[in-house]
Amino acid sequence: MEILVLNSGSSSLKFQLIETSPEQIEADSDRVRARGVVEKIGSGEAIISIEAGGKKTKTSEEVLEHRDAVHIAASCLQSSGDLEQDQIEGVGHRIVHGGEQFTQSVLIDDEVLQHIQEAIELAPLHNPHNLKGYLAAREMLPRAKHAAVFDTSFHQTLPRHAFLYGLPYVFYDRLRVRRYGFHGTSHRYVAYRYARLFGKTRRDYKLITCHLGNGCSVCAIDHGRSVDTSMGFTPLEGLLMGTRAGDVDPAAVLHVMAKEELTLHEVSSLLNKHSGLYGLSGISNDMRQLIEQSEKGNDRARAAIDVFCYRVKKYIGAYLATLNGADAVLFTGGIGENAPSVRAQICDGLDSLGIVLDPAKNKAAQGEICRISSDDSACQVWVIPTNEELLIARDTLRCILGLPHP
Amino acid sequence: MVVRLENKAIRSVAVIGGGTMGVGIARVAAGRDIAVYLCEKDAPAAGDSSEALARELDYEMSRWSLTASEKEAVSRRIRVGFEISDAAGADLVIETVSENFELKSRLFTALDAICDKSIIFITNTSTLSISELAAASRRADRFVGLHFLNPATRTAVVEVIRGLATSDATVAAVKDFSRQLGKTPIEVFEYPGYVTTRVMLPMINEAIHVVMEGVASAEDVDTAMKLGYNLEAGPLALADRMGLDEVMHWMEHLFRELGDLKYRPCPLLRKMVRAGRLGVKSGEGFFRYEKAE
Q: Cβ contacts (< 8 Å) between A11 and chain B: which residues?
């Protein structure tokens, strides 16, 4: 079955066309027929990169809204090869927030749509853009079945003691304020991929998965179930990220708000878009640039990297306690897959907890599956590139065929 | 939070007049993914509007509410020019030129000639008659007032003002547009001062009386009202921001139109305006300010 996977952000649309079937899932032989991204949506010079049929193209044109971007995605798939639009039977949508409603991926009907709209309140920075992509795709591909794959659903297995905050219980009752966790599809994917290397399932292992990209989160997976994760009510909690602050004493935020007379909108933008690696370094939210600057002796870049690594280390330590030891720590995401020095700094001094890297293997591992721990490391450490699109395609197929979700 | 997901949303507006309100409205609209054509009378005026817009965006960045790339995206959605004919094709036209009946009615006549009959015209007037202006637009049913408070970028309410012939559909559409801008609309009928000005001005005037009569200092009056009623600013600081000359004009206007003595401008207000103490813009009003330039 041909499944179109859409990941629709505030100003970008990533898409992949994936051919999958129950047999292909079993054999792990799903096929990516095309992939692409439309960046800078809303501008006169959006960048459209497409890879299909062995050809890569990059063009620039006016793309004012998501509808145009979805149109571009659908038509490029048509023109690039042997595919008719009608052949796309399923469309899988990445939806960031599913609230407590969704513990797994679902086909989108009016009721589901209603719940996703209600969850906008919980994820005002993400869900509206995800929905724009869905509405455009529904218009463009009315005969296809559309599925929602949530960032939050994998973490719905969190036990109560991990998801409740120490606020009056009434706010959980009334406003559903709790830890939801995000990046669920990515954590689930790397856990699946790791287990598959040994011909097993994720239910056979205790894993700590570190998704370190522009957004960052760590997850403790106990025999297949997410039992804790660093992102919380929103993707703002936990690790230091590109532009997000991560953990910070709420009283510090209140203090800044009062002293600088900031409005809610201003302080939200401050925490989400002006903080993190960018805010600390004052240079960039891009880890590659910070590493470069730090090597040239820039102390603020050094500080940002140090805070970043220390915080990941702290969470790994915490989740080793949560899981009472882990079989493996897995690194994924742009930084996790491609920044050996960051991985080295995170894992440095964890030997008493059974984590020892092999420096040469770690240095060599960039963007591909690779074990980077030393042979005598009790807890293995691996780099596993994420592939959320694949799981979105498979989940969509399962929804359409009515198959159980793993 | 209500987020519109239908495709009926306004996608382009022409804002005619690039003064404080025009620039503010353009910025708000561009922040909501709406393409804006901001039209001034000539090239130098258009240049001033562009500068004012850049200053506003820099201010927002300094307040952390905007990132560099968001600033770029917002700027890109606003085209500043001085050809009225370029307003044709916009989904909505908003007029914000100075409060001069002749000027506005000429403008609406010209706009009527180039814009499709289905397009709603909005005036930002706060003193002129919507119904009279509507006649000049030759589309009285699709003509409506929309009063943004200053600063348009940071005030969460707008007043939607019906003229005599404004249709229900027009009012509904403009309310939807207001929500699209992230503002809460309230509906008012054409009447001097609408709600926001009519209720606030007498309070400011009364505060000035309290100071004139020596009951309390300007500082204490503002402290009392600010803390006592949880206002973001006291009435005298607010008057300084509006400009005391503006406050006086408004009181005179209400006094003239409604004829009630309660709208008589306080003598201290007159005295300060005569002395050139106009508030923030002159560097001194009830309080002192560092001059902007």
A: 73
Instruction: Tell if the CB–CB gap between A43 and B66 is shorter than 8 Å.
Output: no
Which of A30, A151, A228, A395 is an active site residue?
A151
Report residue A31 as tokens. 């096929």
A406 prior amide bond cis, ω within 30: no
The answer to whether the complex's ipTM is over 0.85 is no
- Cβ <8 Å between B63 and A44: no
d(CA A169, CA B223) in angstroms, rounded, equals 37
Q: Is the pTM of this model over 0.90?
A: no
The residue in chain B having the minimum alpha-carbon distance to the alpha carbon of residue A275 is B64
B64/A266 touch (CB, cutoff 8 Å), yes or no: yes
Report whether A260 contacts A252 (CB < 8 A). Answer: no
H or E, element range at B135: helix B130-137
Say which of A120, A262, A274 has its CB closest to residue B3: A120
- Contact call for A266 and B65, based on CB within 8 A: yes
| Tens digit of each residue's pLDDT (9 = 90 or more) over A135-167 | 999 988 889 999 999 999 999 999 999 999 999
Q: What is the pLDDT of residues B138-185, one digit of tens each?
A: 999 999 999 999 899 999 999 999 999 999 999 999 999 999 999 999
Q: Is A228 a catalytic residue?
A: no
A274 vs B contacts (CB less than 8 Å): 64, 67
How many whole angstroms separate alpha carbon A195 and alpha carbon B168? 63
**Of B180, B122, B183, the residue nearest B6 (C-alpha):** B180
A23-82 pLDDT, tens digit each: 999 999 999 988 999 988 876 778 889 888 778 888 888 887 888 888 888 777 776 665
Q: Which residues of A174-191 are buried (b: 16+ CB within 10 A; e: fewer)?
A: eebbbbbbbbbbbbbbbb
Report d(CA B116, CA B101) in Å as an integer: 23
DSSP A133-195: HHHHHHHH-TTSEEEEEESSGGGGG--HHHH--SS-THHHHHH--S---S-HHHHHHHHHHHH
Residues of A within an 8 Å Cβ radius of B: 11, 42-44, 64-65, 67, 117, 120-121, 124, 128, 131-132, 135, 243, 262-263, 265-267, 269-270, 273-274
